[in-house]
Automatic annotation (TrEMBL):
The lineage of its organism: Bacteria, Pseudomonadati, Pseudomonadota, Gammaproteobacteria, Alteromonadales. Its EC number is 1.-.-.-. Transmembrane segments: none annotated. Gene3D superfamilies: Medium-chain alcohol dehydrogenases, catalytic domain (3.90.180.10), NAD(P)-binding Rossmann-like Domain (3.40.50.720). It comes from Glaciecola siphonariae. Keywords: Oxidoreductase. This is NADPH:quinone oxidoreductase family protein. One of its GO terms (molecular function) is oxidoreductase activity. Residues 10-322 form the Enoyl reductase (ER) domain.
């Protein structure tokens, strides 16, 4: 089969599109024929050796796929060949086939297109976990979402509205602000031409926000850290802007708010049952039309480098997927 292989930790441009052996369904696993694989910002960090986890070389990046089961290993009574599924694989998704632990595979209804299903896992599942388990967001609270036109930002906007929050989106352009509003944001701040902290202060009558869903890092994080309400929760989602900020802990002391880390991969590993319950809820919301994956662009598997470049340049509105 064809796959995108990382042979050494280096630039994304060094990834190789090549033939490798097909995976085998070991006990407790299934093989999924990949129809689409989600492309995520951490994939590029993983390839460069800059992520929290460093896989053994060589490896195939890609943590979320959608497709059809083509083989079932021993000890997997609940999944069958031919089932349409979502798979959470951590590695191996940028390929024509991938073996996935059966407990990380979920059947999906035919009403969900496979390219959208591939984009439903990481972005929406991260936002869902962040707002539900980590922030414990309540109806009537105010949420600030940075990078709100990206995949996980749009997901946070949609899910927060379902949970009854007032949503302030923060984006880098008017076009992205419009997309965030189309997905449910009540207000939007274009931080390219507005001071984020001052705008939040004005929109909240000086109170600040109860929860900040912060994806960008750098100066945007620092603005959020000064925009929190009493007893707020500042969620650390990622650093798409490239700079990991240093946090002045006196702010949390004086304003009585919490800084809460969100690492979805660890959540899946440590709280597998809650993860599956979250995914069932997400799929139900999707079939009810309450959440939606916005596909910005689909790339051929062979063009994975171009797909990753688009994601890392922060030019994406919604999700990018690869289609073998």
């Amino acid at each position: 089969m064809k796959a995108i292989v990382c042979h050494e930790f280096s630039a994304v441009s060094d990834l190789v599109y090549e033939d490798i052996a097909d995976p085998i369904a070991k006990p407790g696993e299934v093989v999924v024929d990949v129809a689409a694989a989600g492309v995520n910002f951490p994939d590029s960090l993983l390839v460069q050796g800059l992520y929290q986890l460093k896989p053994e070389l060589p490896f195939i990046p890609g943590s979320e796929v959608a497709g059809t089961i083509s083989a079932v290993g021993e000890g997997v009574p609940h999944l069958k060949v031919g089932m349409k599924v979502i798979g959470v694989c951590r590695l191996g998704g940028y390929a024509e086939k991938v073996s996935v632990p059966a407990m990380q595979v979920m059947p999906i209804p035919d009403s969900i297109p496979l390219d959208e299903a591939a984009g439903l896992v990481t972005a929406h599942a991260t936002a869902h976990h962040a707002l539900k388990q980590r922030a414990q967001l309540k109806a009537g609270e105010t949420l600030l979402v940075t990078g709100a036109a990206g995949g996980t930002g749009l997901a946070a906007v949609q899910i927060a509205k379902l949970m009854g929050a007032t949503v302030i989106a923060a984006c880098s352009s008017d076009e992205k602000c419009e997309l965030a509003k189309q997905n449910g944001a009540d207000m939007c701040i274009n931080y390219s031409n507005q001071d984020l902290k001052d705008a939040v202060k004005a929109l909240t009558n000086n109170k600040g926000v109860d929860v900040a869903y912060e994806c960008v890092g750098g100066d945007i994080f620092h603005a959020c850290s000064r925009s929190m309400a009493w007893a707020g929760r500042l969620l650390v989602i990622g650093f798409a802007g490239g700079e990991i900020p240093k946090f002045p802990v006196n702010l949390a002391l004086v304003k009585g708010y919490s800084v809460v880390g969100v690492f979805w991969g660890s959540f899946v590993a440590h709280q597998g049952q809650e993860f599956m319950e979250n995914m069932k809820e997400l799929i139900t919301w999707y079939t009810q039309g309450k959440v939606k994956v916005h596909i910005d662009e689909a790339f051929a598997l062979a063009n994975a480098v171009d797909a990753l470049d688009k994601v890392t340049s922060r030019a994406v509105k919604g999700k990018v997927v690869l289609k073998p």
